[in-house]
Amino acid sequence: MHPMIKAFIVSDALLYSSLNIVNILFAVYVTTTVHGGTVESATGAIASGFVVRIIVELSIGRRSSKLSDSGKLWLVVLGMACISASYAGFAISHSLAELTRLWMLNGAGWGMALPTKLGIVAKYINHDQASQEWGLTDALNMASIVVTMAIGAYIVAHFSFGLMFALAAVINTLGIVPYVVFVATQKTQPN
């Protein structure tokens, strides 16, 4: 398996774990913590993020194809940093307007990172073993999602939403590490 695919698999598991900690509990957070928060307003905030994601994905997807692999990886890192910043912001934001802006930042991050990293994966995946590599990715994603959702629910029940959002930010930020390591090891290897 190519080292880029290994980096992708680990990073993707962390990315989706952090997303699912937040997604599963965000409406509960809004309805119990945000003044005037409702399920509809929570859904509206998340939907705003998806609209931004669509716009960014459509524009970045086209442009990122022209970048070098290193440039693409740094765009993925930037997108993931935006996602982490949004989760950290959730921990300290208590108004629907702030939360909506943070979901928009989150959507922009996903819009930068996702099409770019999938383009990289398409280049490096072993097409003879693609089903195996995608299967491993999905299995690891689902397993880590189950674990992090349980941890997130425990943290909310026994501590706070703020700590849960901070954990999501940390987990997502850890998802950047495999790409940074990949870039660093590629620079040290002889051509």
Which ranges are low-confidence, i.e. pLDDT below 50, for 5 or more consecutive residues?
Answer: none
Cα gyration radius (Å): 17 Å
Task: Give the integer mean of the pLDDT values.
Answer: 91
Query: What's the total count of β strands?
Result: 0
- Per CATH, which architecture? Up-down Bundle
Number of domains: 1
Per DSSP, what share of the residues sits in E-state strands of 2 or more residues?
under 5%
Task: Please describe what this structure looks like.
By secondary structure, the chain is mostly helical. The protein has a single domain, classed as MFS general substrate transporter like domains (Growth Hormone, Chain: A). Helices cover 86% and strands 0% of the residues. It is built from 7 helices and no strands. The protein has helices at 3-33, 39-64, 69-92, 96-124, 130-158, 161-174, 177-188. The longest helix has 31 residues, at 3-33. The chain is globular and about 55 Å long. The chain starts with a helix and ends with a helix. The model has no long low-confidence stretch (mean pLDDT 91).
Nutshell version of this structure?
The protein has 191 residues and is mainly α. Helices cover 86% and strands 0% of the residues.
Give a topology summary:
Elements: H1 3-33, H2 39-64, H3 69-92, H4 96-124, H5 130-158, H6 161-174, H7 177-188
Characteristic key phrases:
Growth Hormone, Chain: A, mainly alpha, 191 residues
